[in-house]
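INFO worker-7 received task bundle
INFO bundle size: 2
INFO processing item 0
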Amino acid sequence: MRYNVTIEETLARTVQVEAGSQRDAELAVRRLYRDSEIILSCDDYVATRITADEGGPYYKSPSNDFTVIQGDCVETLSKFRFGFDMVFADPPYFLSGGGISYQSGKVVCVDKGEWDKPTTTENMDAFNYRWLSAVRDHMKEDATIWISGTHHNIFSVQQQLLKLGFKILNVVTWAKTNPPPNISCRYFTYSTEFIIWARKQQKVPHFFNYELMKELNGNKQMTDVWRLPAIGIWEKSCGKHPTQKPLAVLARLIQASTRQGAWILDPFSGSGTTGIAANLLGRRYLGLEIEEEYLAMSRARREEIENSDVRSAYLERLAKAGAILPPDPLFVSEDEELYYGVPWI
């Protein structure tokens, strides 16, 4: 976290330091004053005031292809102008109403947090309209957006997309090959999620990597039903977000709708899965997230794939799952020209 530390004195100086906590920030400034041989008299010094600077990145990768910022997506996006090639959003489903499920041989509560509590239809519509409107303003004219959900939220999302002028291209049904059982035995087992794919403009053509999708599907046209497993244990090496999506799903949709070097936005970044998939496939990423716990997880996951052996192992797993072709040397160029003028770097 970056902190602004203001030493309230007659000179009114403000310095900015990188620190893990407010206490560390204050100590860093004291060292700075000591090393610079700055001496404050009793008449000069008033107080020390520390505030967190949430405007800058929480973390960016060494090659600048992965950036996460802490903050509400609407407020953060309002601070800069930039056009993204693709957006993936996994917004709240509003289904954490005290239900239970079955995981790893145990009955567990499925509540994700206060942010996922059920709400009124009007509030849900207003929430979805607000964030979709903000995101649309930061999409290139030929950009597309993918939004995941279940019946709890996806119909609201669809209605707001239409209100904002998006053109819906497909509604993908993700059929999980390893869903948890329905322990109440009063309903069919829940084994699917929906992913809406839409483009920004009604009449501006979008990019679709048709040939690659066909090749990944045994040289047959890929349908809008994707049979892919839920998240694997190997994807939880740095912790687990309660709504974490599998890399295989993100890898497929990123390849379907972007070219190498594309900029991808995730307004509900969570544990950074979108960014990890993007970087593994040679794309660039900006994620927005409020919770510091998940920002830290995103950073740890990105730092993990700096290890070439880990990166290779991930690509091999994705290829084995049929999410990508057998890996060639995939990387993102570190040419600084690629990042010139990007406002959050």
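INFO item 0 finished
INFO processing item 1
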Amino acid sequence: MSNFLLILGLIFLVGFPIYSHLFFYEKIQRFKDPRVVYFFTLIPGLILVGIAMFFSPAKTYIKSEECGIVKQYKMFPKKRRQIERLAIVMDQSGYIRYFAFDETLPRVEINKHICFEFYDRFKNKGLDQSRIIKLLTRSEI
């Protein structure tokens, strides 16, 4: 429904000013400032686009659980600051993956086997990097 409202709103944003100009030009010219009427024709389209954005579903990210061995903490330069990422050798694939992690999480010793819950950037299209959410204990696995 939100997609329908968005498309309808975009059509109204473009169509109403054109329609009013083509069919009501002489009546619009009688006003003191005819440009104001053209701005008022944008209001229905803007309202529909706003309603469509309000009804659009919120993004929900898929959580994943994996285990691996911590290899290193590595600093990566970002525009104005340095970002620290955790390099982990994954148990299932054997590849090294880099994860961003919250500063609230405790630091883990190097060469220690851990299990963790994370948002995977390959499963969640809106993420630019994988992020560790929570370290799992033996009872949570």
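INFO item 1 finished
INFO post-check item 1: The mean pLDDT is 85.
INFO post-check item 1: The radius of gyration is 26 Å.
INFO worker-7 idle
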